[in-house]
Specification:
Blueprint (H helix, E strand, L loop, with lengths): L3 H7 E12 L25 H4 L10 H13 L3 E2 L2 E2 L1 E5 L9 E5 L5 E11 L17 E2 L2 E4 L2 E15 L3 E5 L11 E5 L6 E7 L6 H18 L11 E11 L9 E4 L4 H20 L7 E6 L4 E7 L9 E2 L6 E2 L2 H9 L5 H12 L3 H7 L3 H14 L5 H18 L12 H12 L5 H14 L3 H7 L8 H14 L1 H8 L6 H11 L6 H12 L1
Parallel strand pairs: 14-15
Antiparallel strand pairs: 1-12, 1-13, 2-6, 3-18, 4-5, 4-17, 6-9, 7-8, 8-9, 9-12, 10-11, 13-14, 15-16
Helix pairs in contact: 3-6, 4-5, 7-8, 8-10, 9-10, 9-11, 11-12, 14-16, 14-17, 16-17
The protein binds adenosine-5'-diphosphate, zinc ion and magnesium ion.
């Protein structure tokens, strides 16, 4: 099979996402008073409404509607003042009502969008930006210095309810194939769920991944869901089709179900794009079907061919009056909008003089932006913003990614200690290499950076005399290398710096060593 980069030279990928979020921060279900609780004893949070017993009448959860309106406002949607619920009819044991209550053609939130900033290696997936200079735009894309920005339309965000959970017994790994029987837990049935549907305007797996990541940041900022992809409170289906570059008509799409991590979403789409290209290039046909991405075997498998909307017999819900949201209701929700990640990043650029790249990466996690802000408060010096941002974006984020048990909020590395460490490096008291060692020691030993520096006898030698003496000795001890350097083999500078560092047991100021070496060798 060709690689993604090869395929995208000839084919344009068209991707649209459907993203479900459970409103986990609410107290009760969507249409009844049952408690929302993950991991409770099975079937302990049920009632006639969420089980669909005869005569039970639904009452919509006002807090859930406030949450979806908040989500709509945070994603630039129009809030529809008039909308209603529908029944989506189907029979499956996880839905004992035999229909799901959902919304029809008009949802609470319509016509929104998000801006994505794409940079780094992932920006290379977009192979059609040749000839576009920074600042120039084509369609919904604007070229930037280190990548591009793109605006992705949101078709709608609608309100619906989750189904119960099936547990299959006797088959392998809880799968239905080979199972002798199945159990069903209705605790999750009726959980308020919002589904966001994007326009088919994403063009690469990286854009899809970034969209999902950005949406998660926004939902976390507005506090409507814990957005746990592992526990399934944030789930994503990816729709993807291919068309020849230059073609305007869409191809037939397949849908990848339930990608439960950003990496799976990216890799599943990338695989599916390559698979479709192969089928099409061999003269085959893509069927509209639902596929499952299996990360361990790295391929997608057919789950079912697509049912059409008609199969569900969508009809207006007779037990609930249509909604009329007042301007006052919407305005009150608007007042609850917190500072969103994009706004926060803009503030960091303005207040601390950070680059757009740094600012964006700081706000990627709520904990890292809170840590940065607390650090800057402790620092009281805007000049420390850049080195602190580097510490957060590089060292802290790497630690968070590498070590799942690392919790920044309770870690021994407090914002005050981080600033202390940043000051030690900024004042050349320790080298940046030593700073890495101190960083790890603060976390592992729960001590102040200064105490660790003292204890380990770390200091950076920035005394010109001492450095010159070492440089002279090293040059004298390596006459051959010195001659070669002087004949133009300037990459030997690395060798000399290494030798000097070794002599100084890693404590020499590398910047000064470089300068002195260049002077003495030149
Ligand atoms: P369906 O009726 O199959 O559910 P929808 O029109 O509701 O399809 O769209 C579902 C999702 O698929 C949306 O995110 C939409 O942007 C995306 N989509 C629609 N058509 C295509 C296509 N040809 N290729 C890729 N994605 C598509
Ligand atoms: Zn209930
Ligand atoms: Mg659809």
């Amino acid at each position: 099979m060709k690689t993604l980069e090869e395929v995208l030279q000839d084919w344009e990928a068209v991707i649209g996402l459907e993203i479900h979020a459970e409103l986990t921060t609410l107290q009760t279900k969507m249409f009844c008073g049952c408690k929302l609780e993950f991991g409770a004893e099975p079937n302990t949070h049920t009632c006639p409404v969420c089980l669909g017993l005869p005569g039970a009448l639904p009452v919509p959860n006002k807090a859930a509607i406030e949450s979806i309106v908040l989500a709509g406002l945070a994603t630039n949607c129009d809030i529809e003042r008039h909308s209603m619920f529908y029944r989506k009819n189907y029979m499956y044991p996880d839905m004992s009502k035999n229909f799901q209550t959902t919304q029809g053609p008009i949802a609470f939130c319509m016509r929104g969008h998000l801006e994505l900033d794409v940079d780094g290696p992932g920006a290379k997936e977009r192979v059609d930006l040749d000839g576009l200079n920074p600042g120039e735009s084509r369609d919904n894309v604007t070229r930037t210095e280190d990548g591009y920005t793109t605006r992705v339309g949101i078709t709608r965000i609608h309100m619906e309810e989750d189904a119960g959970k099936m547990v299959h017994i006797g088959g392998g790994e809880g799968r239905i194939a080979g199972a002798t029987h199945s159990l069903v837990d209705y605790n999750r049935a009726g959980t308020p769920l919002i589904e966001l549907v994007t326009e088919p305007e994403l063009r690469t797996p990286e854009e899809a991944r970034l969209f999902m990541q950005k949406l998660r940041q926004i939902y976390l900022a507005i506090g409507i869901s814990d957005c746990s992809m592992e526990e399934g409170s944030l789930r994503c289906d990816g729709n993807v089709s291919l068309r020849r570059r230059g073609e305007t008509k869409f191809g037939t799409k397949t849908e990848l179900k339930n990608m439960n991590s950003f990496k799976n979403l990216h890799d599943g789409l990338a695989y599916e794009i390559c698979r479709q290209a192969q089928v099409l290039e061999e003269g085959g046909t893509i069927y509209q079907e639902t596929r499952h991405w299996d990360p361990s075997s790295k391929r997608t498998i057919v789950m079912r061919v697509k049912e059409t909307a008609d199969d569900y017999r969508l009809c207006p819900e007779p037990d609930m009056a249509p909604f009329d949201l007042s301007d006052e209701f919407v305005d009150n929700v608007r007042k609850r909008l917190p500072e969103l990640p994009d706004q926060k990043a803009k503030r960091y650029e303005a207040d601390f003089g950070l680059s757009a790249y740094d600012a964006r990466h700081l706000v990627e996690h709520r904990v890292t932006s809170a840590f940065f802000e607390a650090g800057m408060e402790a620092a009281g010096d805007a000049k420390l913003a850049k080195p602190l941002a580097n510490l957060v974006i590089n060292d802290i984020t790497a630690r968070m990614n590498a070590d799942e048990s690392f919790d920044l909020e309770t870690s021994a590395l407090t914002p005050a200690r981080a600033i202390e460490l940043v000051k030690l490096t900024a004042s050349d008291a320790i080298s940046s290499k030593q700073a890495k060692e101190v960083f790890a020691a603060v976390i592992d030993e729960d001590k102040d950076p200064a105490a660790i520096v003292e204890e380990r006898g770390m200091k950076q030698v920035s005394d010109t005399g001492a450095i010159e003496a070492v440089v002279d000795a090293v040059i004298a001890a390596n006459p051959d290398e010195a001659a070669r350097y002087r004949e133009g083999e300037t990459k030997l500078i690395g060798f000399f710096v290494g030798q000097c560092m070794k002599q100084m047991r890693g404590q020499g100021n590398p910047k000064m060593i470089n300068q002195v070496l260049a002077k003495k060798l030149g």
